[in-house]
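Is it possible to get an amino acid sequence alongside its tokenized fold?
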Amino acid sequence: MRASSLSYLLREGMRSIFKNRMISLAAIGVLVACLLLVGASHLLTQNVNSLVGYLESQNEVMVFLDDAAKGEDLTYVDTKLRALDNIASVTFISREEGLKTWMEQLGDDGTLLEWLVEDNPLQNSYRVVLRDLSRMEETLSQIRNIAGVETISASREMAQAVTSLKDGIARAGFAVVVILAGVSLVIVANTIRLTVYSRRKEIGIMKYVGATDTFIRLPFIAEGILLGVISATIAFLLLWAGYTGFVRWVQEGSFAWAGILQSHIVPFSSVASRLYLYFLAGGVGIGTLGSMIFTGKYLKV
């Protein structure tokens, strides 16, 4: 497309927006609101996933070894555990380390366990952190099949709760995006429809003098794209300011949960470029689709 043609389309799009500025403002307002809700939902999902990732890292599996497993047997178990694709980290805890930790946790009462040093009843073990808790049962089954493993201790209830939370967030986020995209599409499409209807005589004259449907349709598509770009930019800036203010409020507040939240909150800079591209794609896509739907219908006027 030549620069002059592009300039013409942009001028026509802007002219139409200003000519129908009340309707255009309504469309921009609704689209901005929808994009803000989608963006807020995305940021909430990212932060909850970050916290869920922290919970996953805290949900450890203890693998206790057979007392007969020593030397090469321990090396074999270590190698097999680290080879499993769903295991994030593996830490060996000798029976001596386990007893020492137990005594330290008891504080002054730990001296009561000194008699166990000579006849330590604890087992060598591994502290294992899983990558994906939804695959816990599969991974536990693989660990049980490793020679030298005697028992496994795992919090299945916690794993199920975390997995359900992740699935629920994913489904809710998808539903929000679909519903708001539909609402935005209807609003922008109706804006274009009113614009086309108000210019039906002009369209009739253009068709009479030989203008093609494509030539008539393009300015309206340009209007839809401009509405999308303007809405996406406004929504992005508002969300940026709002999220930054929320993070500052959390950091400056003296809340009991603020320490954990601050250490796992997602910085806006890490999602800014991707989020703006999502906004542009959503805004332009909805604007373009709305223009194409109703322009095609009203070209018959």
